[in-house]
Amino acid sequence: MAQEKNDVAWAKVQEKIQTGRPFTLALLKSGPKSDFDTTTAERLQKEHLIHLFQLHDEGKLLIWGPLVDDTDLRGIAIFNTADAKEVEKWLSEDAWMKAGGMVFEIHPWFSLPGLSLPK
Q: Cα-Cα-Cα-Cα dihedral of 55, 57, 61, 66, to 10°?
């Protein structure tokens, strides 16, 4: 009986996995430059958020957010493409990246479309 339940559960898992597809995960990290005055940092953050929301509105960026602990890893972003070069181009246009306050690391990522965070 337990084995039968496991077989059914495994069949459901395999069915769901078949709907998966590749995405791109970006890790946003502290960059080499950190000596920004308050006015500059506020401007860069504003431009950074506008850029991220624009990418989201265009369907390129699915989900993103900052990490809230005190580490060099500043945030994550999941892009709606498996094309790392395209993601690199989009992230290179970000104000923090251009100013050297952040750098990024890109990784191929696999997930199931439709998964989401609760409201």
A: 80
CB atoms near residue 102 (< 10 Å) = 23
| Placement of tokens 């950190």 in the chain | 34
β-bridge partners, 36: none
- Band (pLDDT 50/70/90 cuts) for residue 5 is confident
3-class SS of residue 119: coil
What structural domains does the chain harbor? 21-111 (3.30.70.1060)
- Among the listed residues 106, 119, 104, the one whose alpha carbon sits nearest the alpha carbon of residue 22: 106
Structure tokens at 72: 């060099």
Helix (H) / strand (E) element for 77: namely: strand 73-79
For all residues of the chain together, what is the average pLDDT? 95
Question: What is the rounded CA–CA span in Å between residue 98 and residue 113?
Answer: 31
Instruction: Cite the DSSP H helix spans in 18-113.
Output: 38-57, 84-92, 95-99
pTM of the model: 0.90
